[in-house]
Amino acid sequence: MSSAAEQAKDLYRSFLLDLWHASPRRRVSLAERIVADDFAIRRGGQDDPARGPAAIVDTIERSLALFDDVRVTLDQGPVAEGDLVAARWTFSGSFRGGLPGASAPVGTRVAFSGMDLVRLADGKVAEYWVSSDADHLMAQLGVEGESNA
């Protein structure tokens, strides 16, 4: 395997694992180092209007506000080819409460999986497509109807 492919995989691992498990201060500095200034999140056929490192930091921090004991694991991959990296992951944590419509009690353990595709440019993560089993997460939290994740 080429060194470029290994570097792409290492960058993705930092993006997925290090960003989620870092302290808030370290998360910001790491995002500024590995995420492009024009970084974009693409989810569910819609683009998140936020851009740059702050967009991923905000996404992670909004999730962490809802869950304790968060663990994000890399289940399959990453697989790198050219400027693209793909992988499958699992998120788990204990519900803190605060999600409108959720009927699960505080402390409920949840887990759900998803897949990422990221595009790299100039040694940074430039675009992020995420597809997750948000319906499964919402069911665990007792949210009825369609999910927004």
Brief write-up:
The chain has 149 residues and is of the alpha+beta class. The protein is built from four helices and six strands. It has a six-stranded mixed beta sheet.
Q: Could you characterize what this model shows?
A:
With 149 residues, this protein is an alpha+beta fold. It has four helices and six strands. It has helices spanning 3-21, 24-34, 53-64, 134-140, and strands spanning 35-43, 46-51, 67-81, 84-95, 109-121, 124-132. α1 (3-21) packs antiparallel against α2 (24-34) and α2 (24-34) runs antiparallel to α3 (53-64). The chain is globular and about 45 Å long.
Name some characteristics of this structure:
33% helix; 149 residues; alpha+beta; 6-stranded mixed sheet
Describe the secondary structure blueprint for this structure.
Layout: H1 3-21, H2 24-34, E1 35-43, E2 46-51, H3 53-64, E3 67-81, E4 84-95, E5 109-121, E6 124-132, H4 134-140
Parallel strand pairs: 1-6
Antiparallel strand pairs: 1-2, 3-4, 4-5, 5-6
Report helical residue fraction.
25-40%
Which class best fits the helix and strand makeup?
alpha+beta
Distance between the termini: 35 Å
Characterize the largest beta sheet: strand count, sense, and whether it forms a barrel.
Answer: 6 strands, mixed
- DSSP, total strands: 6
Shape estimate: globular
C-alpha-based Rg, rounded: 15 Å
Give start-end ranges of low-pLDDT stretches.
none
Strand line-up in the sheet with most strands = 2-1-6-5-4-3
In round numbers, the mean pLDDT is: 92
Order of helices and strands: HHEEHEEEEH
Task: Please indicate the percent range of residues in DSSP E strands (runs of 2 or more).
Answer: 35-45%
Number of helices: 4
